[in-house]
Specification:
The complex is a heterodimer of chains A (242) and B (497). Chain A has 3 helices and 14 strands. Chain A has 242 residues and is of the alpha/beta class. Chain B has an 8-stranded parallel β-sheet with strand order 9-19-18-16-15-12-11-10. In chain B, strands 6-20-21 form a 3-stranded mixed β-sheet, covered by helices on one side. In chain B, helix 4 crosses helix 14 and helix 11 packs across helix 14. The chains are: A alpha/beta (242), B alpha/beta (497). At the A-B interface, strand 7 and strand 14 of A face helix 3, strand 5 and helix 7 of B.
Chain lengths: 242, 497
């Protein structure tokens, strides 16, 4: 049985204290309250409405479900846990995320998944159902980003400019045949075949589809581009020591 | 053909040498070898002085190579060597430690301190109380009282330092774990703080939480909830004095074993700290990171924002003071580093003296000086530099290079090689073992207590008995050899005025 609270009837501090003290809590009527679920380690938090910036920053475990859109800097430096948003996300989503999973049903703004990484059992995963803005996956250092373009016409551009600039590890999957505009020559990009899709995407897409009651098979049937750093073209600068 | 002659010459007093070969074992740069007799590879010598210090007979000494190029006032020998080196290797010149300065003045050396004579008494610190304890953080704007008039404790979280000298951020990876251990132990014993830099915090150092500042930089390496809560303050690193505007790059070769575990990045893969924080494009964004860190730590810890001293440092500091940060660290032009592009190190930024004076004045003018404490760093060499920095407007200082020198560093500026013979800037186990953290901590404690004694003596001479009365007290300073613009920026009168 979860505790229920209407965010419009308590002040922000009380709301956060409640969220911190209750392992299972349902927040309704959320109207831009910032930093909800910051550094949370366990339990389940359900939010209806629009949580403000900094939702789930440093998240360290547990599950957060949002029925509505989320704003900027969501899941910043997230370490572990699960966040599902049945709506759109603003800018700087999942910056420097290290572990856990973030599923967005709709679109994401600028700078999604910048400098995400992975370490041992921690593999950061970001799946965006619609499209993403510019700078997606810049400086990617590990982990997985998938942009699915659901409800977009076939062959649509799913990202903005500067996709994956400076990326040096990890993977980006785009469910389209359209290569991102101006993709850096230091990256390799190819259309995945059925076997590769099965190996790398099936589990991920099944997870995502079940979170939003979607048809995994239908999503998987689309074409997927895979973007990875070209190991032969590193960003290493040539140095000369005196 | 080799256009670049060796920088140094290794010299042996043959009559003193007992052929113990200790120097061959100590030299981690392979400049001294034994092949039937001692063989000197002068071109490999970096002048780290390890062999000299460890020779039981004082038989070795290092000199500059006396060879020189044609004397040319514009193209110095150094300038020519740099051209030769780059035409050979085709790369960005890489160096380490702080800028050697060259023609940029060290303003501390142009400032003289005051002392009391006749009209106000000086104080003898050996016989009278002298307060070097200082509180770092935001000060409450109003005194609040309850209904019966008792004071309400509305003091925001702060750091209490027994002496206004902290240790600068140096990451595990750039320096060895033994260096951080020595710094942590010394900070705990002297009642100050060390800063773990952007490399995470090794679990064995969690016990020093009360004396630890943890750093959150653009790469967010090793940052997680437990890390944030294992410190007494959190520092957001925007920039550093040795390389303003430049990110960090720890090569995969240094990311081994515990360094990888502490940073939480895979072994052998480069760890890149991007030049900017990609979630901070404005003061409002900075405010957001400050707030989220405070949320994650229950508003129990002050948040520091560290920036490099750059041209518009005064308005930048004003913005930071309005971001909710409690402390601003300003790192000057002469600040050290484990590796930086040499051109950046030697040409970007401002000396800390100008920056601190400009920032203090700006914050006072805007009546927000008490919203933040200001820490000065980057080229603080001794206790008088500390006193002068505080008189120019800092609340406290932090030292990196001086602390490493206490551990044996001789400023050979070869940190980037990873072969530090003193066991400081290296991860090679056989070199790391050369530094005993306990002995290092003792040397650091000695340094801090020596400087603190000198600070007390200097303050006593001025007739000041508390470090907080020295803060921004520019009347305690007079300048020599500076022009009127420099005096105006420093806010200091000329000697005799």
């Amino acid at each position: 049985m979860s505790v229920q609270v209407n965010a419009s009837q308590v002040d922000e501090r009380t709301l956060k204290d409640l969220i911190e003290s209750e392992s299972n809590i349902e927040v309704t009527g959320c109207l831009g309250q910032r930093y909800l679920g910051v550094a949370r380690k366990c339990g389940q938090l359900r939010i209806t409405g629009t949580p403000g910036n900094g939702l789930a920053s440093y998240l360290d475990g547990g599950e957060i479900y949002v029925h509505g859109n989320v704003q900027d800097a969501v899941a910043d430096t997230m370490n572990d846990g699960f966040l599902a948003v049945d709506g759109n996300a603003g800018d700087a989503l999942c910056y420097a995320m290290r572990g856990g999973r973030v599923f967005i049903r709709g679109n994401a703004g600028y700078r999604a998944g910048v400098h995400m990484k992975a370490y041992r059992e921690r593999q950061s995963i970001l799946v965006i159902g619609g499209r993403a803005g510019s700078f997606l996956g810049e400086y990617l250092a590990g982990g997985t980003i998938a942009v699915l373009g659901l409800d977009c016409p076939a062959g649509s551009q799913l990202t903005g400019y500067f996709c994956a600039n400076g990326m040096y590890a990890g993977s980006i999957y785009l469910r389209t045949t359209a290569r991102p505009v101006g993709l850096s020559d230091k990256l390799s990009c190819h259309l995945m075949d059925g076997e590769e899709k099965k190996a790398k995407l099936e589990g991920l897409i099944r997870d995502y589809a079940s979170a939003f009651s979607l048809d995994a098979q239908q999503i998987l049937s689309g074409p997927f581009l895979s973007i990875e750093a070209d190991p032969h073209k590193s960003y290493r600068q040539l140095y000369a020591t005196l | 053909m080799n256009l670049i002659p060796s920088r140094y010459r290794i010299n042996l007093r043959k009559e003193e040498c007992i052929q113990c070969r200790r120097c061959t074992r100590e030299c981690s740069f392979h400049a001294i070898e034994f092949r039937g007799g001692l063989v000197f590879n002068h071109e490999k010598c970096v002048d780290c002085q390890r062999c000299v210090a460890m020779c039981p007979r004082d038989a070795l000494y290092i000199t500059k190579n006396e060879n020189r190029f044609a004397c040319h006032a514009v193209y110095s020998t150094e300038a020519l060597k740099e051209i030769y080196r780059q035409s050979e290797a085709g790369g960005v010149l890489l160096s380490s430690m702080g800028s050697p300065g060259r023609t940029v003045p060290i303003y501390f050396d142009h400032l003289l301190l005051n002392a009391s004579q006749v009209t106000n008494p000086s104080i003898d610190p050996l016989r009278e109380p002298m307060e070097t304890r200082t509180f770092i953080g935001r000060r409450p704007e109003h005194v609040e009282r309850d209904e019966v008039g008792r004071l309400i404790d509305n003091l925001p979280p702060h750091l209490e330092l027994q002496t206004p000298i902290m240790f600068s951020a140096m990451s595990y990876g750039a320096v060895s774990l033994n260096v951080q251990r020595a710094l942590a132990m010394a900070a705990a014993r002297t009642g100050t703080c060390f800063n773990c830099g952007e490399g995470g915090l090794h679990e064995s150092l969690y016990q020093y939480a009360a004396n630890t500042i943890v750093q959150v930089a653009s790469g967010r390496f090793g940052v997680h909830e437990t890390y944030l809560n294992s410190a007494s303050a959190i520092e957001i690193k925007i920039g550093q004095g040795a390389k303003p505007g430049i990110g960090g790059h720890l090569t995969g070769a240094k990311i081994i074993g515990d360094v990888s575990k502490t940073r939480m990045v895979p072994e052998g893969i480069d760890a890149i700290s991007p030049a900017p924080h990609h979630d901070i494009y404005s003061i409002e964004d900075l405010r957001q990171l400050v707030s989220s860190l405070k949320e994650a730590t229950g508003y129990r810890k002050p948040v520091i924002v560290k920036v490099a001293a750059v041209h518009n440092i005064a308005p930048i500091a004003s913005g930071i003071a309005r971001s909710g940060a409690d402390i601003i660290t300003i790192d000057g032009f002469r600040g050290g580093t484990g590796a930086a592009p040499m051109r950046i190190r030697d040409n970007v930024g401002l000396p800390i003296e100008l920056a601190i004076a400009a920032v203090d004045q700006r914050l006072r003018d805007e009546k927000i000086r008490d919203r933040v404490s200001v820490i000065a760093s980057g080229g603080i060499r001794n206790s008088t530099d500390v006193v002068k920095a505080i008189a120019l407007g800092a609340d406290a200082v932090s030292v990196g290079t001086a602390a490493l020198c206490a551990l044996g560093c001789h400023l050979c500026a070869s940190c980037h090689s990873g072969s530090c013979a003193w066991g400081i800037a290296t991860q090679k186990p056989e070199l790391v073992d050369r530094l005993d953290p306990e002995e290092g901590a003792e040397r650091l404690c000695n340094l801090i207590s020596a400087w603190t004694s000198e600070i007390k003596e200097i303050m006593g001479g001025m007739g000041i008995n508390s470090i907080e009365a020295l803060r921004g007290n520019r009347l305690a300073l007079r300048a020599v050899g500076l022009n009127s613009r420099e005096l105006a920026v420093l806010g200091v009168k000329y000697g005799g005025e």
